[in-house]
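Input record (one chain):
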Amino acid sequence: MITFPNAKINIGLQVTERRPDGYHNLDTVFYPIPLHDALEVIVAKDANYDCCLHLSGVEVAGDPDSNLVVRAYRLLAADYTLPPVDIYLHKHIPTGAGLGGGSADASYMLRMLNEMFSLGISTENLESYAARLGADCPFFITCNPVYATGIGNEFHPITLNLGGWHLVVVKPDVFVSTKEAYSMVHPNKPEVTLDKKITAPICEWKSTISNDFEQGIFALHQELLGIKKKLYELGAVYAAMSGSGSALFGLFHEPVENIEKHFVGCFCDQQKLPDSHRGVSQ
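The corresponding structure, as predicted from the sequence alone:
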């Protein structure tokens, strides 16, 4: 069986407070986008292993045995009888980008195993399993736009449809440490939360919706600020960094011609967004 995990963008991100446990509470919106990896699972006959991960595409750092899709398999295997499998993961979503690619892969793995082996796990319980793999993983179980609070793990349904807008995603060869990003942020509770701001016309977002990570990260990585400025020069109605970066995105009324020429050396993706009620998963 094969499936195509999709990425997400953060529309706005406000760090509201530091928690006693050292984490931070957030105020953000997760929106699914049609930028995909490819994930295939095949039952391994006469195998002397539980699962074996085969990677291709964008290079993924770290030990394959600790990859989130392997962890997802073993999480379910602890509670259900699963046969040994070969996992083929082709990475297209950039890593370390704030696009949630690894989390999407893990959650789609849970979904696929549930379907392949008729485990009968409810959506609610799949979300519980996903939460054990990462704070934002449960989002990818249903992939509906949500207003997220807590550490990015408390989801509240919202009505937001960007269908028809043209989305440009740009990811330069820049690594942003999440720890470093948080060290430069001063938590502050906003007077107006993002679930209210997001209801305004998109043409107003530029002046009302921001990402708290941008100021500190842009000071260290001027090229990221340059990409955001270029997106606006090209006609973006709204542009921002997703999460703690280093990917940036812009929303346009019309497609941008020759997008790669404007961002040489960067990963670039441009797609017309589908209606949110149809979803982006495949």
